[in-house]
Structure formats: C-alpha cells, structure tokens
Amino acid sequence: MFLPFVISLLQSFETRIDHFNTMDKRNFTLYYSVLDQSFFSESILIYIDEFFPIDQTEKNIPVVIKQIAHQTNSTIITIQHRYFHQSKIFNNLSIESLQYNTINQRLADIAALSRHLHKTQNITRSIIVGSGFGGSLAAWFRLKYPQYIDGAWVSSPSQLVSKFFFDDANKNIQEKMDKISPKCAQITGNIIEYIENKLIENKQNYESIIKKNEIENFTKNANLNKFSSDFIKDIDYIEFNNQRNDKITKNEKIDNFDIRKIFGLNENMKKESVMFIISEMLVYLSLSNSPRRSSKNINIEKYCSEISTWSEKVDDNTLFQFAKLFNQTFNDFNINQTELDPYASDSDNPPTKFLQNQRIMLHLRCSQLGGFRIADNDTKIRSKMVNSKYFRNMCDDLFKIKIKNDESIFNRLFGQLSYGGSSMWLSYSSQDITKQLLSNVKSDMSREFYVNEIESESYSDELYIGQIFEHLNGHSSNNFLNLNGHSMNVSNSYPEDLIRLKNDSVDVISRWLNLSFDDHCGKWGTRILNHCKCNESYSGSDCNQYVVSKNQFRTMSAITMLVPTLLVILVAIFAWCFILEDSDSTHFVI
C-alpha cells in the first residue's frame, strides 16, 4: 500500500511535575510529536514507545499503524516520557529528583496530553497503541483513564503483571536453545559455572599459548569499553570455522590478567555484576529478531550452532572463545557492555545518555515495577550470583529503596492478575520471556477484550504490532512464524489464520476509530463497549439529544415552586400593608 509523505511536527505543552499534589504548582515541558499528512484530524492514534528519543520513535512506528492511520484519516501522536531526553524535569537524577518517577505520574502525563489535544483540536476519537513497556503503559492508561481513550492496542506488555524477581525468562530462553541444539544450554551453563569459579577464586594467572608481551600489547591498545568485532581475532588459537585442538603450553603464563578484561569490563566491577552482564548476553541474543534491536552478525540460532560444536569440558581456550562471542554480540548491538552494570548508573549525573536512561528505569523498577531476571534452580544459563540479594542490594545502594515482596499491591492498583479493562486488543509471542506472567489474562468478548498468543520461533516485543504485519506486507523476507505449530516462512507463505488475525485486528482498531464519524458520542459522551455513555444534558444512543439534566430539573422545580410562593408572599405583604394603612386612616377620621 502506498503511504503518503508524512510530516513530523515536534510540539510541547506545560504540565504538572506532581499531578497529585494540588499545592505543588510547578510545571515542566512535556514534548510530543504529530505525524500526519494533514496535521490533525478528528481521530488520533497515540503511540507509546519505550524510552527512545522522539525522532527514533517516529522511525520505529510500525508500517501497519501508519496504514491504519491513513485509511481511517487519523493522526499519529508520539510522546516523550518525563525525565527522558527533551522532557527533562530537573537538571540531575538525584534520589530527590526521581521521586516523581512513577507509573501514575506517567499515566497522568498521557491524560494531560489527551486533555491538551482535546482542548486545542477537534478530537472525537482516540486509540492508544504500545509495545513492550509502552504496551504496559497503554493497557494501564485504558484501565485508569477510560474517559480519555476509546480503545488500546497492546503488544507484548512486559510489565502488565508485575513480579519483582522473575526467573521464568531463563526457562523460555533455554527452551529456545534446546530446539536449536540440545548441547547449547548445557555448554553455556558449564561456561557460566567456569567463569563463576574463576571470579570466586580471584585467579590472576591464566595459561595460554599466547606470549605474555602479546597479551600486554593487546590489552593496552584495545578499547575495552567498546570492543570492535576484531576483538581477539588475532589470537591464533581461536578459529570458529574450523575446530582446533591446540593445547595450552604450561610454561607460558600471564600474570595479573583479570578475567574481566577479556570481556571488556572494568577491573573493579563487582563479580555479581560481571555475571549479570554475561548472563544478559543471552537475553540480547533472544532479542536479535526484533526490528529495532537487530544484530548484524549474531543471534541465538548462530550462537547455539557455534557453541554446540565445542567440548562440554570447559578450559581457558573455551573461555576466550566465549569472550569473542560475547564481545561480538554487544558490538553488533552497538552497546557498551560495561554500561549494563547497574552500578555504573550510581551518580546524580550519569555521563552518557544510556546510563541516564538506565538510572531512570532502574529507579522505576526498584520502586514499583520489579521484573529483575534472576537465576532459577532448573537451568544453568543464568549465574547463581544473579539472585534477589544482588538486586535488593543494588536498589538499596543506588536509591535507598528496600525492596519488599509487594508486587501484589502493585497489581491491585493496576488491574490485578486478570486485567479488567475493556476495548483492548492484546497480543504476545509464545517466545516472549514474560509469557508466563500473561497466562492468566483471558479474552472476554462481552467487553471487547481480545487476547492473542502467537506461536513463533522468535522473540520480539515488537513481534505482533510490527514484525508480523511488516512481513505480511513484504517488508522482510526471512522470519519463521506460525499460529498452529506449523513452521513456515511468512515471506513466501501466508497462512490463512495469520492473515485473518491480522485483518481482524486492523478491522477492530479501525472500527474503534471510525465510530466517531457516524455518531456524536465523541463530542458529547464516551464510548464504552460499543455503547455511548453520555455527558450531562445529552441522551440517546449517539448522545445527540439534548435533555434536561437532574440538576437542571431540580433547579427548574425549585424555581417553579419558589416563584409562586414568593408571589403569594408579596401579595400578602402588599395586602396587609394596604389594609393596615386603610384601617389606621379610618381610625384617625373617627
């Protein structure tokens, strides 16, 4: 489908720093952008991204969203979240400054934006759309502020159900690895355990076939904070395309060489943080099929195909081979692996944008969301050092927040385990690492609440809204998806059920957006479950009939009773005065 040229217009408005304290009059500037060839129409799609700059968000809006906007003549709005990028509140990220970094404040920001748009534009219909954490915000907003929004389209909401410490992600990733190769998870677990032992022993001497001066020159000249894909490529014994059985020469030792260096990490990094970052590599590899987070050269399939050829007995040669894969992964994702350390954000003014964003999100997780991925007892792919104690200490050290097991309190505030909202289309992939948290959320047609789990061989928080539909529209050529467990390439074969699901979702969202063009509900009421809840003084199925409200009726009744009463009183007073005056005059004459 041809899409017209889209104009992007950055705008802003003033809103409260604290929406829930009437005594606090301070404001900050919240930025949003308008994407539409005709600037504003009567219906809008509010697209909630995660925490990317607005210009990056605009580039990542799925094609299908733009198509829906075009065919329904709707305007796309994106918002820049408070604290992030242009929408800064304070000049620092101190603990005191972050006290307004809450879910409720963010939802109130979206409500303020909705009020601003309705006040300045002729808006009759609005749908909120989001994926990942943005999807969670979209779902919560529909639940908390139904008067501002007519429906929500939510893809893989990462935090719709909160759980502070989450170990199911390891099982999901291991299932994926086992499908590729039964040896992949086992060898990975052995390597993780080997690195743990190295860190615990604090062993400084590593045997290698490389001469001492070669390593010293390499580590001296290498940019260890941002490895290039050339990392260790000159080390003779590492060859991934043909396996070698080179033995380590015992008389060649390297003194004072910290294991952290070969992984590009700071020498003073906590050993728990080292294991956290190494374990996170598998999460990024699982994200590699996401349109936004794509890796050029490596993904979970390539990783498992390579590592499965290695021996299950781990030695230092294996360690260096694994380090190369590790550094290649983060280089391809354009991520400085050292910055993934939560403690790297332990500053009121983190030096990089990545660390600034990480500090904001860590604070939100420590204070409300949770979602910390920890080790479990059934798998070995995440280090046992990455446990609840590590994250509890981190939250206390960075923000003076002591985590309590209170996710049930959070869930009660945001819809319980069974989401209670209406007019929402929810979807997630069978490979989502938070899939278990959504298993209790079921469809309810009576309130137009649709839940769709899509069978997929890849994970992506963008999978449903973005990736599937863009494959169906021919924007990609190599992704395997299925709805009934049948493997197929969607670029060459589109199963009827997948196409039907795509069409159904587009029809539902378009219907929600188009309702305002057929009735007056958007102007004089709020549509809920296809019924219009009218504002005061309006009635009818479309709220297009003006009626007398209860207050108006009471006022009119009071007036109709009061006016005759007053008239009687006035007549009585007049008569009394006249008779009294006449009586006095007669007495004087007599």
From TrEMBL:
Pfam families: Peptidase_S28. One of its GO terms (molecular function) is dipeptidyl-peptidase activity. One of its GO terms (biological process) is proteolysis. Keywords: Glycoprotein, Hydrolase, Membrane, Protease, Signal, Transmembrane, Transmembrane helix. InterPro entries: AB_hydrolase_fold, Peptidase_S28, Ser_carbopepase_S28_SKS. The chain crosses the membrane at residues 558-580. PANTHER family: PROTEASE S28 PRO-X CARBOXYPEPTIDASE-RELATED (PTHR11010), SERINE PROTEASE 16 (PTHR11010:SF117). Belongs to the peptidase S28 family. This is EGF-like domain-containing protein. It comes from Tritrichomonas foetus.
